[in-house]
Structures are given as C-alpha cells and as structure tokens.
Design a protein that fits this description.
This protein is α+β, with helices and mostly antiparallel strands and 194 residues long. The protein has one domain (2-193): Maf protein, CATH 3.90.950.10. Helices cover 30% and strands 26% of the residues. Helix 1 (11-21) crosses helix 5 (181-193) and helix 4 (173-179) crosses helix 5 (181-193).
C-alpha cells in the first residue's frame, strides 16, 4: 500500500481526515508517524499559499505524496478576521474558549444578519514528481452568542449553522464531516487521487 503523509500533528484533524479518506489505496500517516519533526513557518497571505508551503516542505524531506491543509474562520463583520491567523488569533497558546469569547465580545450588539462567517479549508497535494493540486471549500454560518456543543474543536462551539439549528460542535462527527469545509475539500481532493 502506498503512503500518504498528511502534514498535521492535530489528532482531531487526523481522525476527520482518515474517516473521509477511508477506502483510498493509501496508508495515511501524520508527520509524527512518518518520523518528520520540523517547524514550518506559514507566512502565506491565503489558505492555499499556506497549505502549499507546508506540503512542499514535507515533500522535500520524504519524497512521497504529501497533503497539507490550512483552514480558518472568516468573520465578515471583522473584515474576514481571524482568517489565515485563526490559529494565532489572541496568541497561539491561548485556549479556544478564550479566543471564542474574544470574537463573541467583538460582535456584541451585532444582529444575526451581520454575524455571517465561514470556515474555509484549502488542501494542497504535492506528488513525488513535483506536481501540485490545491482544492478549497467553505462552510457558511453565523457567529453564535455563546459556546455550545462538545463535538468538534477550535471555533466549532461558536459557529452556528441556521439550517441545522445548532453549532458545528453540536453535530455528530459523521454529520459534520458531510458538510464541513474540510470534508468538502477532502472529497474534492479524494476525487483527484482516485
């Protein structure tokens, strides 16, 4: 079976990836499982640039198929912040419960119709021959008024999906994977790999 290295150390993300990519003719390994331990500076201006930066850096080490993603939250009222700085928003070591409250506080008094937001995910593939593919997808919603839900991670507890009547952290993992930005982008990439 061929190996596919996914440039992440996030176990929650890896679980999502393995569920969505199940049945592909690849063994999906994290960087750690592949024995790769490097810090990669994500200094791109877009999610696509950051995904490519990570995938290229890992591919130069392992010379195998590498997938990397960059994703984040864009809040329209905040000029699409935190955007590519989603992980670093409020400080890298700051717990997401505090980051989530910071966003809720910035939207105090803002009505639902102006609380629009989206999760964006770009996935880059760099192949052993050096060729590259990038796919991007989004999930639209609004910023809620308080955290809700124990499923998911990051900004999921404040990302409210009006058509489902709940936050993305209140969805089952299967339901979330079916509609999430990462799920959509991974399925687009999966089609390319098949």
């Amino acid at each position: 079976m061929k190996r596919l290295i996914f440039a992440t150390g996030n176990q929650d993300k890896l679980r999502e990836i393995r569920a969505i990519m199940a049945g592909l003719d690849y063994e999906i390994l994290s960087m750690k499982e592949a024995g790769i331990d490097i810090e990669i500076e994500e200094n791109g201006a877009t999610f696509q640039e950051n995904a490519l930066i990570k995938a290229r850096a890992i591919q130069q080490i392992c010379h195998e198929l590498v997938l990397a993603d960059d994703s984040g939250l864009e809040v329209d009222y905040m000029n699409k912040e935190p955007g590519v700085f989603s992980h670093r928003f409020g400080g890298e070591e700051t717990p997401y419960s505090i980051k989530n409250q910071m966003i809720i506080d910035r939207l105090e008094g803002v009505p639902d119709e102006k609380r629009t937001a989206r999760f964006v995910c770009a996935i880059a593939a760099v192949f052993p021959d050096g060729s590259e593919i990038v796919k991007e997808a989004a999930m639209e919603g609004i910023i809620g008024y308080k955290e809700a839900g124990a499923n998911g991670f990051g900004y999921d507890p404040i990302f409210y999906l009006p058509e489902y009547g709940c936050t993305s952290a209140e969805l089952s993992p299967e339901d979330k994977n079916a509609i999430s930005h990462r799920g959509k982008a991974l399925r687009l990439m999966r089609k390319e790999l098949e």
